[in-house]
Amino acid sequence: MSSRKAAPAKAAANRRLGVLISGRGSNLQAITDAIAEQRLDAEIAVVISNRRDAPGLERARRAGIETVALRHTDYGSREAFDAAMVGELRQRDVGLVCLAGFMRLLSGSFVAAFPNAILNIHPSLLPAFVGLDAQRQAWEHGVKVSGATVHIVTPELDDGPIVRQAVVPVLPTDSADSLAARILVEEHRIYPEAIRVILDGGWRIDGRRFVEQP
Ligand code: GAR
After folding, report:
1. Closest CA to ligand 1's atom 17
2. Residue of 72, 122, 141, 188 marked active site
3. What is the percentage of the chain residues whose pLDDT exceeds 90?
4. Are strands 16-21 and 43-49 parallel, antiparallel or unpaired?
C-alpha cells in the first residue's frame, strides 16, 4: 500500500528557490552556475544559513543573492527556529527549498510547510551511510562503490523518495578525503539536474518511489 499521496503531475510551477546552507556552499555555487549557464530555469530567492560565518553566504552575496543568517542558538527550540525559517521563505514566495549542506534536522512542521517541495543532497548512496561524515563512513566500511543522492525530504533523517543518484567507485588508493572530493564532483552535477526534474513536473510519488512519467 502506498503511504504517500501521489504528487500532481505538473508540480512546482513556482521556480523560486530557497537554499539552506551551513558551510562552504559549493553545492549552492553549482546551482548558481547552472542557473547562470541556463541549464536550470530557476531563481534563487534567498540563501539562509544557520551559521553567520558560513563561507557560502559570501558566495551568495557575490552572486547578488539575498542572504539571511538565523542562528539556531538564538531560538528556544527547534520548532521556533524552523518557524522563523518558514517565515523567511514564505515572505519571498519560495516554491522549492534546497538543502545544500544544511547540517540541522528539520522538524515535522517545517517539512509539512513545503510538502514534497524540499530537496536534500547527501554524499552517499542512500539508504547506506546516513548522518554526518557519510564519505568517511563509507570509506571505513570498505564498500567498493559509494556516491551521492538527491532526495525529497521527509521528517526522517536522510530518508525520502530518491530523485537522482550517482555512483562513485572507491579506489584502493583512496583516503576518505579523496573519495569525498570525487563524490563532490558528482553532487555538483546531479543537484541542479534533480532540481530541474522537480520543477519541470511530470513525476509522482508511489510509496517511497519517485517515478518520472515516460
Ligand atoms: C556536501 O558534501 C553535502 O552532500 C553534505 O555536506 C556537504 C556540503 O558541502 N551534506 C550532508 O552531509 C547532509 N546530510 P557544500 O557546503 O560545499 O555544498
Report:
1. 26
2. 122
3. 92
4. parallel
Is the separation of the CB atoms in 65 and 32 below 8 Å?
yes
Confidence bin at 165 (pLDDT 50/70/90): very high
For ligand 1, the distance from its centroid to the CA atom of residue 101, given in whole angstroms, is 4
Question: Whose CA is closest to atom 6 on ligand 1?
Answer: 101
CATH number of the domain where residue 95 is located = 3.40.50.170
**Residue 104 grid coordinates:** 540541522
Q: Which domain holds residue 105?
A: 16-120+152-165+187-212
Q: What are phi and psi of 92, to 5 degrees?
A: -105, 15
Residue 122 falls in the annotated catalytic set: yes
In a domain, 130, yes or no: no
Domain count for the chain: 1
